[in-house]
Amino acid sequence: QQKVQQSPESLIVPEGGMASLNCTSSDRNVDYFWWYRQHSGKSPKMLMSIFSNGEKEEGRFTVHLNKASLHTSLHIRDSQPSDSALYLCAASMGYNQGKLIFGQGTKLSIKP
Amino acid sequence: GPKVLQIPSHQIIDMGQMVTLNCDPVSNHLYFYWYKQILGQQMEFLVNFYNGKVMEKSKLFKDQFSVERPDGSYFTLKIQPTALEDSAVYFCASSPRLGGNQDTQYFGPGTRLLVL
Known about the structure:
The complex is a heterodimer of chains A (112) and B (116).
Chain A (H helix, E strand, L loop, with lengths): L3 E4 L2 E5 L4 E7 L6 E7 L6 E6 L3 E5 L2 E6 L4 E6 L8 E8 L8 E2 L3 E6 L1
Parallel strand pairs in A: 2-11
Antiparallel strand pairs in A: 1-3, 3-8, 4-5, 4-9, 6-7, 7-8, 9-10, 9-11
Chain B lengths: L4 E3 L2 E4 L5 E6 L6 E7 L6 E7 L2 E5 L7 E4 L6 E5 L8 E8 L10 E2 L3 E5 L1
Parallel strand pairs in B: 2-11
Antiparallel strand pairs in B: 1-3, 3-8, 4-5, 4-9, 5-6, 7-8, 9-10, 9-11
């Protein structure tokens, strides 16, 4: 049973549009979420992290967290072709020595 | 930003042979990790390592696997002997403090291992 589920599996957004990606954990011990972006053949790079209820914004990226439902979402406004990548959601638990539990990813394509 | 390097980028090996995957973590980082990703599946935690010792390992970290970082050189993952199910991309990560809730893990680009 996957502990971190991401949706959709793939997403196509026109350039300049808003991309919305979702992630939910089924493990109530999770207390921190991470969003990584991975371009093809490259390292996953951390975009944003969140552990408090509410939202956090950095430039074109906004992340939301609902701790009651253990649901997080990543929103990218004014999407650019360079945003085309695999987006990975990861969860961690305070007690478990730094282990990240990853979802299967959402493949985002931005169409010019 | 901080970079983690992995050598080699690709490795093809016959089943039963030994393979060593090398990771050059960010220079001032103290915590090191290996993750495994089978094609089409999510990345899964294998092991983490600090101060010369394994802190935690998953059930994927079989007895044939070992990790070490002798004298501050490469952080290595050794598989001896290899099996067909070891074919995957192996990602190394490092963090300055304990990752997860305390600090960001920085990932390398992965080593693609194919066991024939």
